[in-house]
């Protein structure tokens, strides 16, 4: 399992804080509806909607950033593999042949 980076920990903590903040606002809204104070409900509803939109935008931005980072990481790994194969063609052929033999043996055992 990959180790967590400080940036990942900070992102996780920010996500927890966002969700706790949103939960608190929604709990206030639920509590206010028991009051049946129309102006109070309207204000809390607007506050909850605003926090929900803010949280949604933050989560979307984080998701896009994580997707971009993962895509870049995979691209770098593919480039490294491609360079290795071009730099060591016979080693790559040997590895491919060995993997083929192992797969053949495993399939043949059935």
Write the layout of secondary structure elements.
Blueprint: H1 6-35, H2 38-87, H3 89-108
Helix pairs in contact: 1-2, 2-3
Structural class: mainly alpha
- Helices, by number, come to 3
Quantity of strands, as a count: 0
Distance between the termini: 32 Å
Q: Using the alpha-carbon principal axes, give the shape.
A: elongated
Largest sheet properties? none
The proportion of strand residues reads under 5%
Helix proportion range: over 70%
* Quaternary class: single chain
- How many structural domains can be distinguished in the coordinates? 1
Radius of gyration, rounded? 26 Å
Low-confidence stretches: none
Give, in order, the helices and strands.
Answer: HHH
Average pLDDT level: 81
Walk me through the structure.
Residues 13-60, 82-110 form the DUF883 domain. This protein is an all-alpha fold and 110 residues long. The chain is 91% helix and 0% strand. The chain contains three helices and no strands. Helix 1 packs antiparallel against helix 2 (38-87) and helix 2 packs across helix 3. The model has no long low-confidence stretch (mean pLDDT 81).
